[in-house]
């Protein structure tokens, strides 16, 4: 292993959350990397076969983003975070799916969704998520989960039989079975939550040891909470609570994760590297498409929060254009002047941004400012004469 790091155990995190004191100098090296894990028995080999088939389906999917530069960059972030030895056997697939998610299978397959990449502001934030997913893999959580579920299923099956027999003698076995089933399912949920906590801590250790700014990990989850709250407010729903875990929840609350990672960031020395410019350069060819996919989710308030958060790092023509599209497509009368303003700001940064002329023209047309609209749409046609909607736009500029 090329470096050592402060490995905070799950017990340590629990003590932190409960306010107990721990020895801040308690440091351990990561276990020596023992090479890629291989299935040890028939059950594990069966899991690998399922994962291998799933990987083949993923590899051939039309959702896969095959841009060599983007794939190479995401791999470089993983390798920096966990080390070249550990990441060597990982196969990364980036999928064009506009949700905040990533996963890793026991056979070494990592899936990263475009919605995750859109929400990261820098390389440090991405490293925290990739490290978390790799931690699940290295800790073999999928295998543990499989074994636990199989054991629980066996227990439930036998308990159901015994409950049926007991019921025939009037002892209330059916109710006892129902209570026992809830207890088993609750134990499975707690088991999964503990796995998530362990992966958070191991993943945090990776990024801190790699020199990334440690506080970036907690910022990811605080942003996730803020976006969820914005979505709820926009849909006139009650804001989700983050201070309690549902009985069957498979993950800790985002608040617990953010607070734990924030405390760890104050306890474990890391670097200050963020990698903001490198991340933005890698995302540049795809940011417009990812933003367009987000807007199609029809989540105005969540999308507005996301775009504004990204803009806090510095507004770009792409972000301003996306914000204009977001307001234009909602199309409340009060939205259209805002949309026009965002398009104009975008054009101030990139005067050749054809879509901004189109959006501004369509917005002005709906505001009954037809002369200004025709001018903007004419400029759009000059920049993009072969656009798929060129004939429709021409009919607006020069109506018959």
Question: How would you characterize this protein structure?
Answer:
This protein has helices spanning 10-18, 42-59, 68-82, 84-87, 114-119, 123-138, 141-168, 173-209, 216-234, 254-267, 276-283, 287-295, 300-311, 317-330, 335-349, 354-366, 370-383, 390-397, and strands spanning 91-95, 102-104, 109-113. The protein is mostly helical. The protein has two domains: 10-146 and 180-267, no CATH class; 285-397, Tetratricopeptide repeat domain (Serine Threonine Protein Phosphatase 5, Tetratricopeptide repeat, Alpha Horseshoe), CATH 1.25.40.10. Strands 1-3-2 form a three-stranded mixed sheet, with helices on both faces. Strand 2 and strand 3 form a beta hairpin. It starts with 9 loop residues before the first helix and ends with a helix. Residues 1-29 and 151-191 have low confidence and may be disordered.
Chain-wise SSE layout:
Layout: H1 10-18, H2 42-59, H3 68-82, H4 84-87, E1 91-95, E2 102-104, E3 109-113, H5 114-119, H6 123-138, H7 141-168, H8 173-209, H9 216-234, H10 254-267, H11 276-283, H12 287-295, H13 300-311, H14 317-330, H15 335-349, H16 354-366, H17 370-383, H18 390-397
Describe what is shown at a glance:
The protein is mostly helical and 400 residues long. Helices cover 65% and strands 3% of the residues. The model is unreliable at 1-29 and 151-191 (pLDDT under 50).
- The dominant shape is elongated
- SS content category: mainly alpha
The total of beta strands comes to 3
The Rg value, from CA coordinates, equals 26 Å
Number of domains: 2
Which series of helices and strands comes N to C? HHHHEEEHHHHHHHHHHHHHH
The mean pLDDT is 81
Which oligomeric form is depicted? single chain
Binned strand content: under 5%
Biggest sheet details? 3 strands, mixed
Tally of helical segments: 18
**Low-confidence residue ranges:** 1-29, 151-191
Strand order within the widest beta sheet? 1-3-2
Distance between the termini: 73 Å
């Amino acid at each position: 292993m090329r470096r050592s790091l402060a490995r905070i155990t799950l017990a340590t995190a629990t003590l932190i959350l409960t306010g107990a004191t721990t020895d801040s100098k308690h440091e351990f090296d990561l276990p020596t990397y023992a090479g890629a894990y291989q299935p040890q028995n028939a059950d594990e080999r069966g899991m690998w076969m399922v994962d291998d088939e799933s990987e083949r389906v993923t590899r051939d999917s039309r959702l896969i983003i095959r841009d060599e530069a983007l794939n190479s960059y995401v791999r470089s972030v993983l390798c920096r975070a966990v080390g070249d030895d550990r990441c060597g056997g990982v196969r990364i697939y980036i999928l064009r799916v506009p949700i905040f998610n990533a996963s890793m299978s026991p056979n070494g397959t990592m899936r990263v969704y475009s919605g995750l990449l859109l929400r990261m502001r820098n390389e440090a934030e991405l490293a925290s998520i990739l490290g978390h997913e790799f931690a699940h893999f290295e800790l073999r959580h999928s295998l543990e989960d499989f074994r636990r579920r199989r054991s629980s299923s066996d227990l439930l099956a036998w308990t159901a039989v015994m409950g049926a027999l007991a019921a025939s003698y009037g002892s209330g076995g059916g109710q006892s079975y129902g209570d026992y089933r809830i207890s088993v399912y609750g134990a499975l949920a707690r088991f999964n939550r503990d796995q998530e906590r362990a992966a958070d801590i191991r993943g945090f250790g990776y990024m801190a040891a790699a020199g990334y700014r440690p506080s970036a990990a907690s910022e990811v989850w605080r942003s996730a909470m803020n976006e969820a709250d914005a979505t709820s407010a926009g849909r006139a729903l009650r804001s989700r609570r983050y201070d309690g875990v549902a009985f069957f929840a498979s993950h800790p609350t985002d608040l617990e994760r953010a607070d734990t990672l924030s405390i760890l960031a104050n306890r474990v020395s890391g670097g200050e590297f963020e990698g903001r410019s490198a991340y933005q350069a890698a995302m540049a060819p795809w940011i417009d498409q990812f933003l367009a996919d987000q807007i199609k989710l029809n989540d105005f308030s969540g999308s507005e929060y996301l775009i504004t958060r990204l803009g806090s790092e510095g507004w770009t023509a792409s972000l301003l254009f996306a914000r204009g599209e977001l307001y234009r497509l909602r199309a409340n009368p009060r939205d259209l002047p805002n949309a026009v303003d965002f398009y104009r700001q975008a054009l101030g940064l990139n005067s050749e941004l054809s879509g901004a002329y189109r959006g501004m023209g369509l917005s002005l047309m709906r505001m009954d400012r037809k002369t200004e609209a025709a001018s903007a749409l004419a400029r759009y046609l000059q920049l993009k004469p072969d656009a798929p909607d060129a004939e429709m736009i021409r009919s607006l500029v020069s109506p018959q």
